[in-house]
Design a protein that fits this description.
Strand content: 5-15%
Mean pLDDT: 86
Order of helices and strands: HEEHEEEEHH
Number of helices: 4
Distance between the termini: 33 Å
Number of domains: 2
Shape: globular
Number of strands: 6
Radius of gyration: 21 Å
Structural class: alpha+beta
Largest sheet: 6 strands, antiparallel
Helix content: 25-40%
Length: about 190
């Protein structure tokens, strides 16, 4: 490769371009981390809802305070989910939130805007959360936020992961976790 071509490739990379060594070919780039909720500054957005750790529930506004008044005394939740379309607020227990890279969705209580309560118990094959670092700010002290981001990048880099099924603990354990562990050991 001529010095001129090498300089061009180097400049393209520095300027965010994707030109590789072959003219016009795109280099494969790694995954990009999802972004926290723009509206709230923290939180994971999924399908019209935003999820935050309870430490950050205040960013979700008055609706959460109103719904919280309907919780049974002593209900210890970890995650708050606000459906921005319906106003339904869910208070979700996740006992392993700080200790498990993909924490378990346990029991929850949802409160509708009219105060109706719906309690859900943990499923036998529970849902799990990915990108838990989105639920918190970078200065959160319950777990290593930067390590959680690296974990996200690691599993997002795997090929042939069915993103429609990764929310279940069983699929994650059998089809993703084994591959992550194998890659980490090599």
């Amino acid at each position: 490769m001529s010095a001129t071509r090498a300089d061009t490739v180097s400049r393209d990379k520095e300027n965010g371009g994707e030109k590789g060594l072959m003219e016009g070919a795109k280099m494969k780039t790694g995954p990009k981390l999802p972004k926290r909720s723009k509206r709230h500054g923290v939180g994971k957005k999924i399908g019209g809802a935003v999820y935050v750790h309870r430490q950050y529930e205040g960013v979700l506004g008055q609706r959460v305070l109103e719904a919280k008044a309907h919780l049974p005394e002593g209900f210890e939740y970890t995650v708050v989910k606000l459906s921005e379309r319906t106003g339904i607020v869910s208070f979700i227990v996740s006992r392993d939130f700080d200790t498990n890279p993909e924490p378990t969705v346990c029991d929850s209580i949802s409160v509708t805007p009219d105060g109706t309560i719906c309690r859900r118990m943990q499923r036998p094959d529970p849902w799990i959360y990915h990108h838990k670092w989105l639920f918190v700010a970078d200065d959160y002290r319950g777990f290593d936020v930067e390590e959680s981001k690296r974990r996200s990048l690691a599993w997002m880099s795997l090929e042939d992961v069915d993103r429609h099924r990764i929310g279940r603990r069983s699929y994650w354990a059998h089809h993703v976790l084994k591959r992550l562990d194998r890659d980490r050991q090599s």
